[in-house]
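Hi L.,

You mentioned the student needs an example of a multi-chain input paired with its predicted structure. This one should do, with 312 residues in total across all chains.
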Amino acid sequence: MAEQRHFRSIAEVGQDAVRRLLTLTDHMAEVSRRPNPRVPALRGRTVCNLFFEDSTRTRMSFDTAAKRLSADTMTLAVGSSSVNKGESLRDTVETLSAMGVDAFVIRHRTSGVPWQISSWTDAAIINAGDGWHAHPTQALLDAYTISTRVSGVAGLSGLRVAIVGDIRHSRVARSVTEILTMLGASVIHVAPRTLLPPVSSTDSTHDLDEVIGAVDVLYLLRMQNERMGAALLPGGSEYSDRFSLTRDRANRLRPDALVMHPGPMNRGVEIRVDPSDLRQSVITEQVTNGIAARMAVLFDLLGSPASMEEGS
Ligand code: NCD
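Structure written out for the whole complex:
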């Protein structure tokens, strides 16, 4: 039997797979625009959502993606499961596997859990965010969203992208940097020293005002208070004075720049303008494209070259 394939990090799947998935995402976006956005591609397959950390977008988006492909879905409400009785992660995964799961979509606060789980089940593993480490479907949907605005994937090459905020604790920053660099963009991290990773090969600056007028993409991150000690941040409003997107800064963006945010947003912290008043914002498109990107990943792992035609 061929070895099971997974989608656990951008680096692990590599450039050819990323390009294939971006093409597939475009196809799934077309499916999603149909009046009946459903194809029978994964009929009879079962996708299990296993979220040990909070999520709105990612969880609903995977669930919708699986349904649009006609897969059966299982969602474990971890808060009311036997995990609360002390059942181990391994026993939980083995129990669910025994019910016939083809893919686990897993979010966990500990980095590396998706790899660990792969050794306990024959199912495909999709990483929906592990600790500070990786969030590869977010990266895929972001690369796709940019590609729709710059004449395709080739248009990403040479783009200047600033990722702003809490880089250090952000699995999104890591995966987005990986995919955009892989596709030829040049990425700069913008953050106070304490919120940059201790070791990184990516360019960085502490001065948002120095770069804001020159970038093609301004990617804002959420301040991840749950992952940091109090000592990491300049006090009071100093952080948002220096690093948030204010009206004044928005006025200095290039007219064709894109403003992105993975959500959830802390209004008044990293963003002080209403994104719906910003013509450069593609934040809503990110959410919409998230479903297509997750359909692409599910289909790539579980689909056969079978039919993708309409109806189910
Ligand atoms: C992100 C996450 O959970 O990593 N959210 C998301 O998936 N859209 C970012 C965050 O929590 O700040």
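You could point out the following to them. The chain has two domains: 10-135+288-307, 150-281. Strands lie at 46-51, 72-76, 103-108, 124-130, 160-164, 186-190, 203-205, 217-220, 258-260.

Best wishes,
N.
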